[in-house]
Write a structure and sequence with these properties.
The protein is an alpha/beta fold. It is built from 14 helices and 26 strands. The protein binds uridine-diphosphate-N-acetylglucosamine.
Length: about 425
């Protein structure tokens, strides 16, 4: 079993390139099913979740090639309509294939995704949207069986701006007859990226990245598609939190500063120097950090729930009390008991966490309970005195492309053992 070992207390200096976005490449891989030609995707992160998505495409009959950060998909001959339970379980977000399979084959059979580390993960909004488009969906023996001879454009009013439900709706609506209007759509930058990719495929998607998205159904244009996936804003947030907590002066490249404004605003409030270029951000953390105003996680453009754990870890080093209010996921404080093992002083009342800064963090054996909880442990361990061994790092590897290697380049004493 591999662990990440960190000897903390080293300041971070240098330049780090942010990888492509996990949450963007997954729906784009799913959408690639719709084209008849070849899809070439650049800036793909090397992650176990991406490998799981590739396995699903292969199972569906696609041919795929992975060279460096480029993935090529040949989906013309894919005709299978089922995703086996084992593959569904490998990646929780595999439900993102539902709309695309249905659109391509007219039928889809997927096992029901269960809960996950963050609590129950319902898919009612995905199913309602696909039913609105004309799909018949029933549950049978733990499977979802979906049929749609033809999808028909319609109005989809999402009760919550769910990222995944917005993406499934957009992809399925591309293959529908007529126009679909999605209201209360998620506005995350990854939705904008999916919209750009679908437009490049020849579909007509307007408003992706705003709360009203219009999709004119049709056919993809003939020929191949080549696209570069956007940078990962949560990976960027994690590096920035790491530099804030451990101190130092780092520059992130391959980042879209406009997409991480919520994070840079908080870091400035904490006393960090933030200098933004067109596609780079420099973070300078030299003086003692101050607790920021309360942070409430919200759908984009609010503070991202995925950045809450690593930012909480950075706030352990800030003077004063930092308050975090988690509104998106029920079970998103699982890093807190682990951080306490390192000396953190954090009180929790329901969905509110109060972080008393200034405690002296020390190394400890800890466990990554989920992806971003693992990121929080890395951030805390970099700032702590002594050795931290993080186990269950498979969670971290779902979403970070060689995090130990990148942090080592910045001067951290970190190794995957
Ligand atoms: C995506 C991201 C994840 C991020 C989350 C919120 C991917 C692969 N994952 O997850 O990293 O943390 O957005 O920014 O892009 N909900 C329902 N019914 C549904 C769907 C969602 O009640 O059918 C609820 C969820 O339980 C949650 C909230 O809506 O409380 C937001 O979830 P959603 O935006 O759908 O997150 P994901 O797309 O699963």
């Amino acid at each position: 079993m591999s662990i990440i070992r960190i000897n903390g207390g080293k300041r971070l200096y240098g330049t780090v390139k942010v990888s492509g976005s996990k949450n963007s490449v997954l729906p784009i891989l799913s959408a690639s099913l719709l084209t008849e030609g070849k899809t070439v995707l650049h800036n793909c992160p090397n992650l176990s979740d991406v490998d799981a998505a590739i396995k699903i495409l292969n199972h569906l009959g696609c041919k795929t090639e992975k060279t460096g950060d480029t993935i090529t998909i040949y989906s013309r001959d894919s005709q299978a309509c089922d995703v086996p339970d084992s593959l569904m379980r490998e990646m929780r977000s595999s439900v993102i294939f539902l709309g695309a399979i249905l659109a391509k084959v007219g039928m889809a059979v997927l096992s029901m995704p269960g809960g996950c580390e963050l609590g129950p993960r319902p898919i009612d909004l995905h199913l309602k949207a696909l039913r609105d488009l004309g799909a018949e969906i029933r549950e049978e023996g733990g499977n979802l069986i979906c049929h749609a001879k033809e999808l028909t454009g319609c109005r989809i009013d999402l009760a919550i701006p769910s990222v995944g439900a917005t993406e499934n709706s957009m992809i399925a609506a591309c293959a529908a007859k007529g126009t679909t209007i999605i209201t209360n759509a998620a506005r995350e930058p990854e939705i904008r990226d999916l919209g750009n990719f679908l437009n490049l495929m020849g579909y007509k998607v307007h408003g992706a990245g705003t709360s009203v998205i219009t999709v004119m159904g049709g056919k993809p244009k003939p020929g191949d598609v080549e696209y570069t996936v956007m940078p990962d804003r949560i990976v960027a947030a994690t590096y920035m939190a790491a530099a804030a907590g451990a101190g130092g002066d780092i520059t992130l490249t391959n980042v879209l500063p406009g997409d991480v404004e919520c994070i840079t605003k908080v870091l400035r409030q904490m006393g960090c120097g933030i200098y933004m270029g067109e596609d780079n951000i420099r973070v300078v953390s030299n003086s003692p950090l101050k607790a920021p105003p309360p942070i409430k996680t919200m759908p984009y453009p609010g503070f991202p729930t995925d950045a809450q754990p690593p930012m909480m870890a950075a706030c352990l080093m800030a003077d004063g009390t930092s308050v975090f209010i988690e509104t998106i996921f029920e079970n998103r404080f699982r890093h807190i008991p682990e951080l306490r093992r390192m000396g953190a002083n954090i009180a929790v009342d329901g969905r509110v966490a109060m972080v008393k800064g200034g405690a002296k963090l020390h190394g400890a054996p800890v466990r990554a309970t989920d992806l971003r909880a693992g990121a929080a442990l890395v951030v805390a361990a970099l700032a702590a005195k002594g050795q931290t061994d993080i186990s269950d790092i498979k969670h971290i590897e779902r979403g970070y492309d060689d995090l130990p290697g990148a942090l080592r380049e910045l001067g951290a004493d970190i190794a995957r053992i």
